[in-house]
Amino acid sequence: MEPAPAAPGPRLGDSRGAERAAASSSLNPTGAEAQPRRRAPAVAAVLPAGGSGERMGVPTPKQFCPILERPLISYTLQALERVCWIKDIVVAVTGENMDTMKGIIQKYQHQRISLVEAGVTRHRSIFNGLKALAEDQPDSNLSKPEVVIIHDAVRPFVEEDVLLKVVTAAKEHGAAGAIRPLVSTVISPSADGCLDHSLERARHRASEMPQAFLFDVIYEAYQQCSDYDLEFGTECLQLALKYGHINAKLVEGSPDLWKVTYKRDLYAAESIIKERISQYICIVMDTKEDENHVGHHLEEILKNELNHVKVTSGALCPPCRDLEQIILEQCYNYVCVNVMSFDFEETRRLLNMLKESNLSVLYPVVVISVYFLDYKSVPFDQKMENLMQIRDYAKEVKKRNILLCGLLIYYPQDEQKLQASLRQGATIIATLIKERNSGLVGQLLVA
Ligand SMILES: Nc1ccn([C@@H]2O[C@H](COP(=O)(O)OP(=O)(O)OP(=O)(O)O)[C@@H](O)[C@H]2O)c(=O)n1
Ligand SMILES: O=P(O)(O)OC[C@@H](O)[C@@H](O)[C@@H](O)CO
After folding, report:
1. Mean pLDDT score, 212-238
2. b/e per residue, 262-278, with b = 16+ CB within 10 A?
3. Which of 7, 215, 256, 363 is the most exposed place for a label (fewest CB within 10 A)?
4. CA of 50 to the centre of ligand 1 (A)
């Protein structure tokens, strides 16, 4: 199970992380410390985001293509911002996309971001980012870092551990980069379009991102770069080798480091994000104390049906500390349970808590207002009107990226029938959370 949007892991910035990073780079084979502990390096990141995304085949440059109605680049920025020891993040975007980028930074409250003009090639964009860090520019609060991370803006799934690894390795070797096993064999065609030779796949790797460099190493390499390299090159590690005579340290990366290039990559990225934010569900009920509350039965069935998903319960009783804590833990899925009631008040209170928390700024929050009703014996009359208000309220909270819908679950006296409708209800709830389909907003489903 991939981590949900979580708090940062080991840190380079604080004493523990700095010592661990310094120590790990100075460890000798015996694991004993070979050198005195060194201070943590100042680290900045450069994100090339000036491409046009031709291979994506859509008018919008892929770094601005939406995933769950949020631009792809915002996920990458969030991933880097989660790392507290990266002090500056420099993003290279084209002049025509500068306002778009500024709007994204403002809307999603991104921090530590500086923008520079992109170049006509990826290497030139990266070079512009490095220049912004190198030169003391009058209106810039950027300072030259000891180590610089270079990471494509279209690789959103970068975790702190691989960043720590490449930075630690770069501090020791001068350059480092993430690699992955090749999926396909690399072949070399002859001039007449036939196979000339193939490379032994096991002895080769794919160069991915993030990469990290001692700043002076990569900056001097770019300054010496030929126009051909700047125009046609695709590999920063090669520049460090060619111009800095440094053999970068290669670090095995995780499968999720891939670059969003084709449309299928966007679908894959959306599936991964949906899966990650569906890992935590909270059953909200007016009280938790009553063990026989049907909400607890629903909680147990969801736990049994959904592997690796954390299901908890929270009460709306004021002042409600545990629900506030659950929101703070970034739970993006809430099932508000009403028993033999058409009342909408509980759901309304939950929605107000969610709106005040700003939890839905980064990811859509799913709220399912569940009504346990013995609707085969309780006549539907004007009370049904109460439930229909869900449609209007759902339209309102959708503007805050909260996806609200209703679910009637049959609540018979017969225990066996109740278990069957609970299972049906749990299946519908799991699907709503997993799919996060905004087309179902305001609908009232029946289990
Ligand atoms: N002149 C350029 C070209 C690319 N990039 C960035 O470099 C990263 C990786 O490049 P790539 O996947 O090739 O992006 P595009 O060039 O946009 O894609 P395509 O080749 O399909 O047009 C992307 O974040 C892209 O925005 C950049 O900053 N400046
Ligand atoms: O070549 P493209 O511009 O598609 O993407 C750049 C990639 O080549 C690059 O990110 C990795 O291979 C690591 O250098």
Report:
1. 98
2. eeebbeebeebbbebbb
3. 7
4. 6
| Ligand 1, CB within 6 Å, residue ranges | 48-55, 62-63, 92, 118-122, 125, 152-154, 259, 261
Cα separation of 325 and 323, whole Å?
Answer: 5
Question: Residue ranges per domain, the chain?
Answer: 15-273, 278-446
Distance 266 CA to ligand 1 centre (A): 15
Which residue, among 23, 61, 54, 53, has the nearest Cα to 40 in the 3D structure? 23
Rounded to whole angstroms, the Cα distance separating 111 from 428 reads 38
What is the fold, at CATH topology level, of the domain defined by 15-273?
Spore Coat Polysaccharide Biosynthesis Protein SpsA; Chain A (3.90.550)
Select 278-446's CATH number: 3.40.50.720, 2.60.120.10, 3.40.50.360, 1.10.3470.10.
Answer: 3.40.50.360
Tokens of 3: 């981590």
Distance of alpha carbon 199 from alpha carbon 444, whole angstroms: 58
The span from the CA of 424 to the CA of 427, in Å, is 5
Ligand 2 site residues, Cβ closer than 6 angstroms: 122, 152, 207-209, 234-236, 259
Q: Which residues pair with 149 in a beta bridge?
A: 45, 212
SS3 11: coil
**pLDDT tens profile 58-111:** 999 999 999 999 999 999 999 999 999 999 999 999 999 999 999 999 999 999
Mean pLDDT (whole number) for 187-215: 97
Q: Within the chain, how many helices (H) and strands (E) appear?
A: 14, 17
Identify the residue whose C-alpha is closest to ligand 2 atom 1.
234
Q: Strand, coil or helix: what is 240?
A: helix
Q: Which of 66, 62, 267, 47 is nearest to 163 (CA)?
A: 47
What is the residue type of 231?
Answer: E
Side-chain-side CA neighbours of 170 within 13 Å: the count stands at 33
Which ligand 2 atom is nearest residue 122's CA? 3
pTM value is: 0.89
* Domain 278-446 in the same topology as domain 15-273: no
To test the pocket of ligand 2, the residue of 241, 259, 262, 265 to mutate (highest count of ligand atoms within 8 Å of its CB) is 259
Which residue is associated with the tokens 């959904």? 306
Q: Is 38 helix (H, G, I), strand (E, B) or coil?
A: coil
